[in-house]
Amino acid sequence: MSDDRIVFAPDDVDLTRSPLRRDLSEPTYVLGAFNPALTRLPSGNLLLLVRVAEALREPVRHGCVRSIRWTGGRYVLDAFPADAADVSDPRFFSLKGGAYPFLGLTSLSWLLPVELSADGQRVVAVHYDRAVEPSADYAQYGVEDPRIVAIDGTYWMTVCGVSGGRLCTVMYRSDDGFAWRSQGIVLDHGNKDMVPFEGRVGDRFVSLTRPLSDAWFVAAPDGAEGSGPSINLATSPDMLHWRPLAEPALRPLKGAAAYKLGGGTPPVRTKRGWMMLYHGVEKQGAVGVYRTYRALIDAEAREVRERDETRPVLEAASALIAPIAHQAYLPQPVVFTTGIVADGEDWIVASGEADLACRLTRVAGARLD
């Protein structure tokens, strides 16, 4: 890898231009500017849609833990008794005594377009006027972890909408990569990693999905695959109505370090099929160690032909965030890969590093194709 660096970090965000400033005067800070979608604009420049997790400087006050919520077109603060909350994790708090494990977020996420030069070497502009923020109650606690694909001149973006009633996937559409229009919910049921393919398969659009659950049934004892979240496949005639396919694309393997899997980059077309990067999580501590792996799906998008969880494509690199290490809050190494574009014979890969900053890595094409 000839180029591997942080391109955007919390201190690069100007919070005086945050959408939250319209309604909130409380001091906030950027918990993380990370997990960016990546695409190439019609101009040839690159575009990152950066997830900005904006948090209160003083989340606990007067015996209450506070959180930010979007409702009715404005941002408000909610308060919950601190003695009924576990605030040990900087990312969320859990409320005790309920029928379910209720969580509250310590930050609200919105998306910031960051335009880079065609080779990704420098920031050209930060487009605060094009920020993507919550616009419906199904995203009252924010929009998270975008993925972008460009198909036949149209840009499509999936985001995770978070609210007290559901965890869902929301689809956005744009003609130029800047003016995004919400198309509403396209997947429900806790789908947190919906990642469209960058291109049609025949007359179909195809996407990876990854449904979540509070419980999983055991896998067959004589099989190689384990139970738990799987990366599945779904097809659509219009990018809005999705039908799941019966066979999962990737399931956890018994005995493998990566006990949990999730979608990473949009699958891109290569000579040998659809190449995708996905994340695998090794159990370690409260968060786990996140690494990026490669898989190859056949040209008809029906089955996985290759997967390799012995040699990660990317691992967390603490040296990259050394200048901002004082802002880090995760105890385990995390790299969460979310975007990919071709650049000559190479690939430019975008990731979130340590849930803190945006990492851009140039990877030789021979290593991935």
From TrEMBL:
PANTHER family assigned to the protein according to its UniProt record, in alphabetical order: GLYCOSIDASE
A molecular function (GO) term: hydrolase activity, acting on glycosyl bonds
Pfam family, one: Glyco_hydro_130
Transmembrane segments: none
Native source species: Sphingomonas hankookensis
Keywords: Glycosidase, Glycosyltransferase, Hydrolase, Transferase
UniProt-recorded name of the protein: Glycosidase
Domain of life: Bacteria
Family indicated by similarity: Belongs to the glycosyl hydrolase 130 family.
